[in-house]
Structures are given as structure tokens and as C-alpha cells.
TrEMBL record:
InterPro entries: MmgE/PrpD_sf, MmgE/PrpD_sf_1, MmgE/PrpD_sf_2, MmgE_PrpD, MmgE_PrpD_C, MmgE_PrpD_N. It comes from Streptomyces amakusaensis. It comes from the Bacteria. Residues 289-475 form the MmgE/PrpD C-terminal domain. Pfam families: MmgE_PrpD_C (PF19305), MmgE_PrpD_N (PF03972). PANTHER family: 2-METHYLCITRATE DEHYDRATASE, 2-METHYLCITRATE DEHYDRATASE-RELATED. Residues 329-349 are annotated as: Disordered. Residues 19-264 form the MmgE/PrpD N-terminal domain. This is MmgE/PrpD family protein.
Amino acid sequence: MKNHPVRSHRSEENLPREEQLAWKMAQVATDPVEVTDSAAEMIVNRFIDNAAVAAASVGRAAPSSARAQALSHTPSRGGAGSTLFGLGQDTRTSPEWAAYANGVAVRELDYHDTFLAADYSHPGDNIPSVLAVAQHTGKDGHALIRGIATGYELQIDLVRAISLHKHKIDHIAHLGPSAAAGIGTLLGLSTEVIHQAIGQALHTTTTTRQSRKGEISSWKAYAPGFAGKLAVEAVDRAMRGETSPAPIYEGEDGVIAWLLDGPEGRYEVPLPTPGEPKEAILLSYTKEHSAEYQAQAWIDLARKLLREHPDTADPAKVASIVVHTSHHTHHVIGSGANDPQKYDPDASRETLDHSLPYILAVALQDGRWHHVDSYAPERASRPDTVALWQKITTVEDPVWTDRYHAGGDRQSYGGRIVVTLLDGRTVEDEIAVADAHPAGARPFTRENYVEKFRTLATPVLGETEVRRFLDLALRLPELTANEVRDLTFVARAGQLPPAARPGIF
């Protein structure tokens, strides 16, 4: 890897195209280096992971609305069209709308992979747009794997270097460029075309972080699908010869100067050197639990506390619970966010998903986490849960903030918990990473990904469809173009809701 210095430039400096970050990212996308066996194996895992959480969510409101919008748009004459999760191989729409609808289904439950560093990301969000274009244009599994590897690489590289949340910019601003680059790799486009697509995708996906603040709405699920749709459209325009604002990152009125660290801002963005494999996917990790990633380790610790110290789950015996954790966790999903909604039993599922006090209270009492039951209104409003929930606060601990940003074995997404009981006893424990993390107690393997898919998808798809999809997904690198077009699933009768209220389309 090579670190590339990136800063804002005045217009008169006339920064050469070859020195612009978007061009260097495009060069990574056009590098013909093959995907390594280890990266390809993990891409298959994450493809199955995405399908698992999409299958579990296809009947929910947001994915159903997105699917209805997508069904209003037929495939163009220039391709075969793309499939929609839940409807099977025979129903197709245009690729940008398939990227959008399938992206919403993947993101709805907040249950797929993650990478956290200078910023946040769910790099599996690259998959729906790359898959949609592969189906529409007739690309095989080898090309699909290459495109996905590029999407993961560039999003993770950006997240390692550039903080968006610090400036209240939503993290899809790293996804738009990475998805555009991944599509460019899939299609074998030139550096020039991908450069223009990256610039357009970034320009159109810089949105505010209000989507993850306060009363969190269904837009949290839509945002990545929206970025994927814009990435497909950006590539289409660039292929037609249209250009983008440049230099998009470094310009005097560009992203760095006005949306990020400003004219004095300096970044070092790591990118693979020519011929170096794109293996950033191996740095990411998936979720065992359907909750914001920074809550994963706390659910695991709560299960342990309930086994060893059951009094910690009883509000009649607890005086206070204080979570000592990183700046990110405290300010994003903890009491440091200063969001009263994080303590509101009537809050939306999306809000509860981003409330560590709520998640910890329920996990302490139930000893498990479930993607539906743990968010049910009757569960959130249970009096003993509300009482325990109100006694939980978070504080930033510089030690855990340092570990959050550390590399290698010291990196941590957990912290220390102190439970003070009313009889004067205290219970203390800590956890560094989630059990399913590569450095955790039970790292996820292929077997776990397949089991997650079976658990989430079988009630919705049925055993026959589960077996059919897994047979294809497990052979992803060797699939023919026709088999790639079958990489979707159909829900059983009664699993999808009837048509909702109509819109414009």
C-alpha cells in the first residue's frame, strides 16, 4: 500500500489530473491484478451475508416501497435487466433501480458487514449495484468478483483516511465513489471513464448525517441504495462521454475545502500499488446481531453478565450501569449523542438500533438478540426494561478511544462496564471486540455465514429456494453470465405485502 497525500488546492495551482485522488482511485479500479483466493472466499461469504439479511427484510415496509418504485421502471433496450430480491429471476427492472431496491433490502435490518476507522462504513453496500449491472450487461462470476473487490477496497481505503462524520456528512459519500469504481472494474472501463464516474458519484452523494441522528427514519435504509443508484447513473453518463466536477476532492470549492477539513486539511489515503491485490475486504467484519456494529460486543458481554451475575438485569437491584467506551460509541449510539429519543420506548426501530442503553438493557434481560423480537414495541415498552434502560449511561474513556483508532491486535470496538448494585456491590467487566469479529472468541467462518443465511432466509424463501441460491452463491467465481442472472431469490407466497399506497411512478 502507498499513502497518497491529499489536500485542497487553489484553482491557480492547476492540480494535474494524474495527481488527483479520483484519478488514482480509478487507476486502482483498472489494475488487472487478479483477486486472491482469500479475498474471493470472503467475497462469497459477504455475498451470502447480504442475501441473508435481504431475505429477512424483503417483506418489511422500506424494502417493499423501494421494490414497488423499482417495478415501475422496465429494463432498457440495451441489456437484459436486473432482478429484484423477493421476486425471482423472471421479474426484471433497469439496473439503477435494482441497485436501489436491493440496496434498501440489504441495509434495512442493519445486519451485514462493517468497517470502522476514521469513518464508518458498511462495504457490503457495494454489492447490490455491482450485481445489478453484472446481470444487466451479461457479466460472469469472475467479472463480478473483480468488481466487488474494487468496491470494498476503495471504500475501506477512504474510510481509513477521511472522516466524514466529524463534519456531519453521511458515510454514503465514500460509497458512491467506491461503487462507481467497482462497476467500472466489472465492465472493464478505462481509467478516464472511471475517473469521471467517481467524481460524479461523489458530487451527488454528499448528504448530511441527520439520517442517523435524533429520530432516525427509514431513510437510513434507503441511503446506501440511493448511493448505489447514483453510482450506476454516474457510470452510465461517464461512458457516454460526460465529465464531472474536477478536482472533486481537492478543488478550491471541492469536498475537502467546504465539506471536510477545509483549505488547511491534510489526508493520507492508502491505496494499493500497481499489481498489489485488492484485499481490503479482509479487514472488514460482519454482524452476528441485528444492531449497530458498535453495539455488537456489548450484546455479547451482556449475555455473559446475565449468566454470571443475573442481578445486573434486575432494575430493582441495580443503582446504575456505566459504560466506559470510545468517543465514537459514546457520541453516536450512547448517551453522549444527547438524543432523548435513545431513551424513548416509543422510538422507531431505527432509533433503538442506534441506542446502546436500550440494546444493553434488552440483551442483559434476554441473554440474546433477535432482529424482530428485540425491537418489538411491546418489548421496548416493558416496564422492567424501561426502568433498567434509564439507569444506563455511557462515558468516553480515552483508553478505549485510543484502542478504537489503533491498528492491528489493539483495535477495539468495546470497552468496560461498571454495574453498581443497590446493596453496594459492583460488577465490572470488559470486552474488546465482538465474539464474531476475526479477533473475537468465535470468529465467523463460511459455516457461520451459511447458517446465518439458512436461519434468516428459510422462513421467507423455503428450503428449496434456499438450497438453489446457496448452490449458486457458493460457486460465485465460476458462474456463467446466465447463472449470475439467477443470483436472486423468490419469496414464498404470502411473505410479501400487498401493494402499498401509490406514488408518482
